[in-house]
Amino acid sequence: MTFSEKVYEYLKTVPRGRVVTYGMIAAAIGSPRASRQVGNALHRNPYPVVVPCHRVVNREGRLAPAFAFGGWEKQAELLRAEGVETDNGYVDICKYVWNGEE
């Protein structure tokens, strides 16, 4: 399985209404120093409906300014549709982060 495929498979496990960070994905797939590579994989996501890359934020909860499918405003719209509150391009990471449980 390629690095990108590992990213996509992990991200498919993140439930609606929750978010994860690039670093959390990198660590979960066994490459804890590969946050940027996670971002690159998501930017090239060939399965935007199947792989919910809108659920990924940075470690501060900031939405992606260059979200590949319409900018951070579109990412915020997709998250709000799942019940995640956004505020000026940010998500409350403490409230919405998913730690792999539930």
Textual characterization of the structure:
It is a single chain. With 102 residues, the protein is mainly α. The protein is 39% helix and 8% strand. It is built from five helices and four strands, in the order αβααβαββα. It has helices at residues 3-11, 22-28, 35-43, 71-81, 93-96, and strands spanning 20-21, 56-57, 86-87, 90-91. It has a two-stranded parallel sheet with strand order 1-2. A two-stranded antiparallel ribbon has the order 3-4. Strand 3 and strand 4 (90-91) form a beta hairpin. The radius of gyration is 12 Å and the shape is globular. The chain starts with a helix and ends in a 6-residue tail after the last helix. The mean pLDDT is 93.
Radius of gyration: 12 Å
Strand order of the largest sheet: 1-2
Shape: globular
Q: What is the averaged pLDDT score? A: 93
List the quaternary state of the chains.
single chain
Q: What string, H for helix and E for strand, traces the elements in order?
A: HEHHEHEEH
Q: What structural class should be given to the helix and strand makeup? A: mainly alpha
| Low confidence ranges | none
What fraction of residues sit in β-strands? 5-15%
Q: Considering DSSP H and I runs of 4 or more, what fraction of the residues is helical? A: 25-40%
**What is the count of β-strands?**
4
Amino- and carboxy-terminal Cα gap: 26 Å
Separate helix tally = 5
How does the major sheet shape up? 2 strands, parallel
